[in-house]
Design brief:
Elements lengths: L11 H13 L12 H8 L3 H13 L3 E4 L3 E4 L18 E2 L14 H5 L15 H13 L6 E5 L2 H12 L5 E6 L3 H9 L3 E8 L2 E2 L1 H9 L4 E4 L13 H12 L5 E5 L21 E6 L11 E5 L1 H12 L7 H12 L3 H25 L11 E5 L3 H10 L2 E2 L1 E2 L10 E5 L5 H14 L10
């Protein structure tokens, strides 16, 4: 669709700023087509090289894409800070936010009391040795070779750093479809192109992954369990099939995002093997210990970990050692394992309660692990509107989808079994009878 917004500016920087302003104000929506370089140069009375430079700046920032035959368009997910648009009216039950249940997170007061509150200086190690030791033990117990480890600021920070350590602008990344919305936003911001890989309850489909790698995907980003939004999780059979595909493409970078870790409700079945040249497994504590603890452990091949740690030293430097101490204190608490097991069982019970309630009403849904259930629907907006009118807020599937069909995502972390029955009634009422049970 062509844009009606008037782009201004005399130099490359001012032209790029004008386009960015149009995006920020909503005048240049996703998919809007920008004028060809020569036409805009003529309209602005500048050289084509000036416009080309402006467009190059915008492409490098992930704001626009240029493709042969379709011209230059605004990215579907331009990386710009914007005012929050997510608002749940008073009295509506919010099942859209993806948060863990605060009542199932460990209390922090005791751990905070154990902190070494001395000031830590620039020349100290970036990662606490004790924290790395615990993480290494856990990773190795699951079959992840973890000789090289570092600490990053959450799962997405780790994923971003690994991608930047190896990929270049325009590279393709095989990613699940549906995928975590922030992953798709991140790829757009880095100027990387997602190649969709379909999923079922056991995770990424081997045939789709093989096709993506044959299309030239330079990296593979998969979620071994608690796949958000689908709730998929590998079993050993699926992991074996995926490893077989990956062995045929040894040059591809493999990243596993184990963002929910021990509260996923299933065991971690990794894809990485010692033979793989470039790989990383990122495990965040956000879902298990609390989102405000911006800590994740990153295991990988020596080159990848060295590149991530070295680049971090040039900017952030290190993840706060106070936060690292809190995580280490929690992991060292003999009772934390029991608490995490309880949380995992509770999430599994709540997830199963909703799936069973929907099944009794003939509604197909997915959620083998984690805190979310994915429900195919014939049309997202109408179903969401009907649910909202009935007192329920959910997330539209469009935020997560590339080519997969319409659906909604329901966060079950705080959904009690008796609420699951009421929600299932509301959803069944929002669906036309002939659409119930339609497979994904």
């Amino acid at each position: 669709m062509p844009t009606q917004y008037t782009i201004g500016g005399r130099g490359a920087a001012s032209i790029a700023a004008s386009v960015e302003l149009g995006i920020r104000r909503g005048r240049l929506p996703a998919g809007a087509r920008l004028p060809p370089v020569r036409r805009l140069a003529r309209d602005l009375r500048v050289s084509p090289g000036t416009v080309a430079s402006a467009y190059r700046v915008l492409r490098d920032r992930g704001l626009i894409h240029t493709r042969i035959g379709s011209g230059t368009t605004i990215s579907a997910r331009p990386p710009l800070a914007a005012a929050a648009t997510h608002h749940v009216p008073a009295g509506v039950r919010d099942l859209s936010n993806g948060n863990p249940d605060p009542s199932l997170l460990p209390p922090l007061a005791e751990s905070l009391g154990l902190l070494d509150t001395r000031h830590h200086l620039y020349d100290e190690p970036a990662s606490l040795a004790g924290l790395l030791d615990v993480a290494r033990r856990d990773f190795r117990g699951e079959g992840v070779p973890a000789e090289s480890l570092t600490v990053v600021s959450g799962a997405l920070d780790g994923v971003e750093r690994v991608l930047q350590a190896h990929l270049r602008l325009g590279d393709r990344v095989a990613v699940e479809d549906p995928a975590y919305a922030s992953v798709l936003d991140l790829l757009a911001a880095l100027g990387l192109s997602p190649v969709p890989v379909g999923v079922d309850d056991l995770g990424a489909l081997p045939g789709d992954l093989h096709a993506a790698l044959r299309e030239g995907a330079a990296a593979v980003l998969l979620t071994p369990r608690s796949q958000n939004p689908f709730g998929a999780a590998f079993d050993e059979g699926r992991a074996r099939e995926l490893r077989s595909v990956l062995r045929r493409h040894p040059e591809a970078l493999l990243i596993e995002d184990d963002h929910a870790g021990p509260v996923s409700g299933v065991e971690h079945v990794p894809l990485v093997t010692r033979e793989r040249a470039r790989w990383a497994v990122v495990r965040s504590v956000a879902k298990s210990l609390g989102p405000d603890l911006r800590v994740a452990l990153l295991a990988g091949d020596a080159t990848t970990v060295d590149r991530v740690a070295g680049r971090r030293l040039l900017g952030q430097g290190w993840v706060s050692r106070l936060l690292q101490q809190v995580v280490l204190a929690l992991w060292s608490d003999p009772g934390i394992g029991r608490l995490l097991e309880t949380a995992g069982r509770t999430y599994a019970h709540r997830r199963r309660s909703l799936l069973d309630a929907l099944s009794r009403r003939g509604v197909v849904a997915h959620g083998r692990s984690g805190m979310n259930v994915w429900i195919p629907v014939p049309e997202e907006a109408g179903v969401m509107r009907a649910l909202l009118n009935g007192g329920w807020a959910v997330r539209a599937g469009e935020h997560f989808r590339l080519r997969s069909p319409p659906a909604i995502r329901v966060t079950i972390s705080g959904l009690l079994p008796e609420e699951a029955e009421r929600f299932a009634d509301a959803l069944a009422g929002a669906l036309r009878p002939r659409d119930r049970g339609r497979p994904a």
